[in-house]
Amino acid sequence: MNLYETDNFSKFGKHFQENLTQLILEERTFCDQMQEVLDINFLELKYLQAFTNKIFAYRERYGVHPSYKIMYTIVRTEFEDESETTKKAIRDYFVRISKCTTPIHDADYIKEQSLDFCRKQKLKEAIVKSVKLLQKSSFDDVSKVINDALKLGANNDYGYDYVKDFEERFQIKSRSPITTGWDQIDLISRNGLGKGELGVVISPTGAGKSMVLVHLGTEALKIGKTVVHYTLELADVSIASRYDSCITSIDLGDLIPMKEKVFEAVKDIKGTLVVKEYPTKSASTRTIKSHLEKLRQRGMDIDMVIVDYGDLLKPVTVTREKRHDLESIYEELRGMAQEFECPIWTASQTNRSGLNAEVITMESISEAFSKCFVADFIFSVSRTIEDKNTKGGRIFIAKNRNGPDGLIYPIFMDPSNVAIEVLDPTGETIGEIAQNSAKEEAKTLREKYKQYRNQKKGDSKDV
User: Fold this and answer.
1) Element (H or E) spanning 378, and its range?
2) With contact defined as beta carbons under 8 Å apart, do 358 and 381 qualify?
3) Is residue 3 in some structural domain?
4) Which of 97, 197, 235, 304 is most buried when burial is the number of CB atoms within 10 A of its CB?
5) Is residue 176 part of a domain?
6) Mean pLDDT per segment of 10 residues, for the chain of length 463 residues?
7) Does some domain include residue 1?
8) Short-list 98, 87, 7, CA closest to 50
9) 446 is in which domain, residue-wise?
10) What is the three-class DSSP state of 420?
11) Which neighbouring-strand residues pair with 199?
């Protein structure tokens, strides 16, 4: 390349330049880097030049990075010197990026290429300047020119800047929660689990935690969301059949003879469901992350991820302690929820104390209590033998970062067609339930003892 060649971003195309300008607006630290090295003329399009100039001017005048709300005002009031064509192009561009709810998938590439291009241009300028200095200046002067150019555009992300990022504190951040389908739970969780949040269902074996996860996925599908359901215990077709039953209310045993009716119901479902099966302990969070990346590369926007269930994932790094492995798995799931900006639901097995408990608390969580620390919402499902016979049970809200916890709700659960309803709370406390359970148990024991005594008396008379 000719040292004296003037260049711009034209070779990268319009889409690249529009995304670059959007990233300059959205990411303060990247904007810091670009402002040091970007010549506005590198942008080929006039409306992007004017838009980026306003971002830089606002930062220099007020010392803070502008928000979308501020740029909305600027777009409406501060481009009077531009032609009508440019003003319209600016407005149209700002509307497009304002309405965009998905992140720029190739952001890392755009940032890397644009910074590399701009820094090379600055270095070229420094080399040209140093050639002139060689005849009349000292070595230190020449060295300083080159070194200063090399420092420009370097990564200066030291964290959240209290002053520069002032506007960010006053932006309303949308959680974009996805309903659980239960009014009572949505009421206390601020309409469900939000993006970047981890929800955990705790229950003993056979209590229906997989059914609960299918219910949560079904409710997301009904409102047009894309759900990716990972199963590490059951076959993918078994999980898909449970979705069929949950959507249609047809019993699992009747799905095959009612195939046509099932198809008519599911073909019009608004959302998209992907069920991915992995053998138990064969997949890690890294495996899931890789699969999600592939789906995104195919243009699929991930709205909810379900992992059935977290305890069956393989740890990325194996330690001597199972509890440490489980803790790291749940930390990685939480990080994945933040990275993909979607809610993740998973389940956890209780220890033996939860098998016949009327209410399951976090004390019954299997192996690693510390996995509760990273979760945003935790609820347990308890179903005694009597509950299973009467299609009843209880949900206990063990942890809720967005509202109250410690609440108990009676539920109706029919596993035959994956029907789960959360009923109005009765106002019972754990202590009262435990006390009533103890009274019932004592009453049962007294009855058995009485029968035993009567039988013994009868045996004595016979002798």
Assistant:
1) strand 377-382
2) no
3) no
4) 304
5) no
6) 61 92 91 89 92 93 90 90 92 89 82 90 82 75 71 64 71 79 94 93 87 96 96 93 95 93 91 95 93 90 92 83 81 92 91 63 61 86 88 91 90 93 77 53 55 61 53
7) no
8) 87
9) 438-463
10) strand
11) 345, 377
Whether pTM > 0.70 for this model: the answer is no
CATH number reported for the structural domain that contains residue 62 in this entry: 1.10.860
3-state secondary structure of 421: strand
Q: Please, is 333 exposed, middle or buried when counting C-beta atoms within 10 Å of its C-beta (0-12, 13-18, 19+)?
A: buried
Residues 62-97 as b/e (b if ≥16 CB within 10 A, e otherwise) read eebbbbeebbeebbeeebeebeeebbebbeebbeeb
Residue 178 lies in a domain: no
The reply to whether 67 and 157 lie within a common domain is: yes
Cβ(303)–Cβ(345) below 8 Å? no
Phi, psi of 74 (to 5 degrees): -65, -45
Domain co-membership, 193 together with 99? no
Residues 101 and 224 in one domain: no
CB atoms within 10 A of CB 238: 14
Full strand arrangement of the beta sheet holding 408-414: 272-277, 226-231, 304-308, 344-349, 198-203, 377-382, 394-400, 408-414, 419-422
Contact 278, 287 (CB under 8 A): yes
Q: Are residues 448 and 422 in the same domain?
A: no
pLDDT, tens digit (0-9, with 9 covering 90-100), for 134-193? 777 777 776 776 777 676 666 665 666 777 777 766 665 677 899 999 999 999 999 999
Q: Which of 316, 360, 365, 359 is nearest to 336 (CA)?
A: 316
**Quick one: 153 and 226 in the same domain?**
no
Terminus-to-terminus CA distance in the chain, angstroms? 115
Residues 286 and 377 grouped into a single domain:
yes
Non-local CB neighbours of 17 within 8 Å, separated by 6+ positions = 9, 43, 44, 45, 48
How far apart (Å, rounded) are the C-alpha atoms in residues 358 and 407? 14
Neighbours of 398 (CB within 10 A): 23
Three-state DSSP at 233 gives: coil
Q: Which amino acid, residue 267? A: K
56: number of Cβ within 10 Å? 16
CB atoms within 10 A of CB 16: 18
How far apart are alpha carbons 388 and 391 in whole angstroms? 5
